Request: fold
Amino acid sequence: MGRSARNLLAQKLRILRMINGWSQEQLAEAAGVHRTLISLVERSECNISLDNLEKIADAFGLSVPEFLGAPDATALGEKFLTMLNSDKKHEPG
Reply:
């Protein structure tokens, strides 16, 4: 078991960041934390404080329970498809 909570947090953070089209630097700036922290969390390499967890959740417009909860696969899929489609619209002809 060990690091399963860290791994789940890392996966959710990466998915939400990608859906929002943010780099690690952009998320760090929006959350008011250092980019290194975002990288460490995404690689499951650190324990994150509740204060920093709250800052990151706030950056996504989520409460901590929403942020830590299991993702809604349908909603994530729809957001991801929307993101992909908007990227295609911006591609040169």
In short: The chain has a mean pLDDT of 86. The chain is about 70% helix and 0% strand. The helical segments are 4-19, 24-31, 35-42, 50-59, 64-68, 73-89.
